[in-house]
Design goal:
This protein has 136 residues and is mainly alpha-helical. It is built from five helices and no strands.
Length: 136
């Protein structure tokens, strides 16, 4: 049986959390304390919530609800990264990370849909899968 460490969305979320942490440490002290703290917490919450939701493997609707929350954390992380990029960075690295979070969010949306179809449940109001724009 798979563990949360084996699923693709967890691996991507873990990798992105590390990359965000490295970028975060390059922020000026005043940004590190406020926006940096929020950014670190949201990016880490993504991987942690995936792990927690997956841990209750007997409840697919619970996992789908966890993934829905993760999707919201992705939106928050993307917004913070765009703000930080605009103020402090002009590097393509930030754009790549933002694109990776958009990819992660799309994969999470597909995972939610897959859980709902295979379990014949609807855990959240149906949200049409959006292919988020990759232009930044």
């Amino acid at each position: 049986m798979k563990t949360y460490k084996d699923i693709e969305i967890y691996k991507l979320a873990f990798d992105l959390a590390i990359r965000v942490y490295i970028i975060n440490m390059a922020l000026p002290r005043h940004e590190l304390i406020k926006e940096g703290n929020i950014l670190r917490r949201t990016s880490v919450s993504i991987k942690d919530t995936i792990a927690e939701g997956f841990g209750d493997g007997k409840n697919p609707s619970g996992f789908a609800r966890s993934l829905y929350q993760v999707s919201i954390f992705c939106d928050e992380t993307i917004t913070l990264l765009k703000k930080i990029k605009k103020i402090h960075f002009r590097e393509m690295t930030i754009n790549e990370i933002i694109r990776n979070y958009i990819t992660l969010k799309n994969k999470i949306t597909y995972e939610i849909e897959s859980i709902e179809k295979s379990s014949n449940i609807i855990t959240i109001p149906y949200i049409e899968i959006q292919h988020l724009e990759t232009s930044i």
